Every structure is written in C-alpha cells, then in structure tokens.
C-alpha cells in the first residue's frame, strides 16, 4: 500500500505540465503548471492576472540566477 505522499507524487507525475504559451520556459520565462490549471486560469480575468503575476515572479527570479521562483500557483 502506498503512503499518501507517494499517491500525491503519482498524481503529480501523471499530469501534463507545460507553460502557458506551450513554448519552453527557457525561451519565454514562463512558469510550468499542469495543463488543466493553465486552462482554468486563462478562462477568467482574475486567473489571467494571477498567471501574469506568476510569470513576472518567475522571470525576476530567473534574472537573479535562481532556478526556482515562489509564485504561488502550485498552492491548493
């Protein structure tokens, strides 16, 4: 029987992760997120603003040489 954390990891790895534009993050500076989450965010004005803010945080962190950015999209 799998532990809760293992089940969560299985679910996470089965999701299709991409950037909002579909291009590599190295080219665009965009965040990676599950396709379903991106579609949900793009469907509302508030979601588009949240996605734009996350992309801005990602680009800022990248410009500072950081690999990861705390942008808040992956919180429940």
User: Largest sheet at a glance?
Assistant: 2 strands, antiparallel
Helix content: 55-70%
> Which sequence of strands runs across the widest sheet?
1-2
The rounded Rg comes to: 14 Å
Structural class: mainly alpha
3D architecture notes:
It is built from 4 helices and 2 strands; from the N terminus they run H-E-H-E-H-H. Helix 3 (35-42) crosses helix 4. The protein is mainly α and 76 residues long. It has a domain at 29-67. It starts with a helix and ends in a 13-residue tail after the last helix.
Summarize this, please?
With 76 residues, the chain is mostly helical. It has a domain at 29-67. The chain is built from four helices and two strands; from the N terminus they run αβαβαα.
Element layout with pairings:
Elements: H1 4-14, E1 17-18, H2 25-28, E2 33-34, H3 35-42, H4 45-63
Antiparallel strand pairs: 1-2
Offer a few descriptive terms.
76 residues, mainly alpha, 55% helix
